[in-house]
Design brief:
Length: 458
């Protein structure tokens, strides 16, 4: 009995030495992470019953032979083996230094990180759909992480500035499973907007970037917090703000399809400008990314004039399915000599966007007729009867298939002319008196006319 006890004590005493071998730690990682389609290797490991535990030179290498997407210089765990065992898995504070992530997207925006985790057969998933339970708990501090993004949209690789993240891993407050909770953080500040990050990541927040032929400008990305179930991060929730600074992009499929679908054929412009200092609020929930506050402008024929469009809606994480609405605000005091336009004053027209990222489809929602109400309906009836035109003058009866198109054409032409005229007047006033207070933006004036008040200051 004494011999057995002595052997047990010796085994316990040798446990840190056994676990401190990098090869043994690699095999242990494979046993703990059976779903990982890769190998976790360690350059050096220092274990002890008393903390800290130290891991250096960590690399995650996919089994398919592709380059390592994840590498970490050093991980330091606050608690030692004794504290972890007696606390049933509390690692304390875990400090990560020198993390580098190399993310490569394919044309379907699927990254090499997604292929690292083997999907479970549906029969093996929990019936109640609860996330997986982690055997450990921790407070995570990541300092100076670097993210590099590449894809088929550009030969250049985008690289972030150093990123700091604070998060915690703990069991769910209610029910089973564990959850990562990420603290609010400014992930990126005034970073370059290049095709890799625009197409692979930001297109889910700003779909006008999807398929853009080129990008320029800078952006900032703030995360207001996130809650991500272990093993199923896409089922979590997060929110934040994407700020774009002087961003200009080449028109992609969304803009091209919109312009070719309008009753009035407008040429596809060479550039699309996002509203200066645009702040796009986004949130992820139910495996979709929703956005609002995105504005971009389509240059018109005359220099210095453009048509502003507002975008809101959602993009599905799984297949990039779109459910968007593009809105065109109409000035509140349109000329009264064109009754159709006057009936729409202060309102807005919109179109729906379906399809998927990179292949959008325009869906007209009837908002033009709805916005004008009974006036447009009566006008269409009169056009069909051939009784009167816009000014009350008798006119020949239009064809049954062309009358509505003529009305819509008149609307769109008038709106474009009015918006272009107002923008030109504002620009001329600013050039004549550059020190004057900038005129109130159109949307502020509309809100004032409706009794809502101007937009709050950012």
């Amino acid at each position: 009995m004494a011999a057995l006890l002595l052997l047990a004590v010796a085994g316990v005493a040798c446990a840190p030495w056994l676990l401190g071998d990098p090869g043994r730690m690699t095999r242990l990682a494979a046993a703990v992470l059976p779903e990982l389609e890769g190998t976790v290797s360690f350059g050096a490991v220092r274990m002890g019953w008393l903390g800290p535990l130290v891991f250096e030179g960590i690399r995650v290498v996919p089994r398919d032979g592709s380059g390592a997407p994840l590498a970490v210089e050093r991980v330091e765990v606050e608690h030692g083996l004794a504290a972890i065992l007696t606390s049933f898995g509390d690692l304390g504070r875990v400090h990560v230094q020198g993390l580098e992530a190399d993310v490569v997207f394919d044309e379907q925006r699927r990254s090499n990180l997604a292929g690292l985790i083997r999907a479970k057969p549906s029969a093996s998933l929990p019936v109640d759909g609860q996330p997986r339970t982690s055997p450990v708990r921790m407070q995570l501090d990541v300092d100076d992480a670097i993210v590099r993004i590449a894809g088929p949209w550009s030969p250049d690789v985008w690289q972030s500035d150093p990123i700091d993240v604070r998060a915690s891993l703990a069991p769910e407050a209610v029910g089973s499973g564990s959850r990562w909770t990420v603290e609010p953080v400014d992930l990126l500040t005034d970073a370059r907007l290049e095709p890799g990050v625009a197409q692979g990541v930001l297109a889910y927040v700003a779909p006008v970037l999807a398929g853009a032929t080129r990008t320029s400008g800078r952006f900032s990305l703030r995360l207001d917090g996130a809650e991500l179930p272990v093993g199923r991060p896409a089922d979590g929730r997060l929110s934040g703000t994407l700020s774009m600074h002087e961003v200009v992009v080449g028109p992609g499929p969304l803009v091209e399809n919109l312009l070719t679908s309008l009753p009035v054929r407008l040429p596809v412009p060479p550039d699309i400008r996002i509203a200066d200092q645009s702040h796009v609020a986004f949130r992820m929930a139910d495996r979709r990314v929703a956005h609002e506050g995105l504005e971009f402008g389509l240059p018109l024929a005359k220099p210095g004039q453009r048509l502003d469009i507002q975008s809101s809606g959602t993009v599905a994480l799984d297949d990039g399915a779109l459910d968007l609405r593009l809105r065109l605000p109409i000035p509140a005091d349109l000329p009264q000599d064109r009754p159709v336009l006057a009936a729409l004053a202060g309102k807005s027209v919109s179109v729906g966007i379906r399809g998927e990222l990179g292949a959008p489809r325009v869906v007209f929602d009837g908002s033009i007729k709805e916005a004008a109400g009974e006036f447009v309906g009566d006008l269409v009836d009169r056009l069909r009867a051939g009784t009167a035109g816009d000014g009350g003058t008798p006119t020949a009866a239009p064809s049954a298939t062309g009358d509505t198109a003529e009305v819509v054409t008149d609307l769109v032409v008038g709106i474009l002319e009015e918006v272009a005229r107002r923008r030109a007047e504002r620009r001329a006033a600013e050039e004549a008196n550059p020190d004057a207070v900038p005129p109130r933006r159109l949307r502020d004036r509309l809100r004032r006319d409706r009794g809502v008040g101007p937009d709050p200051a950012p």
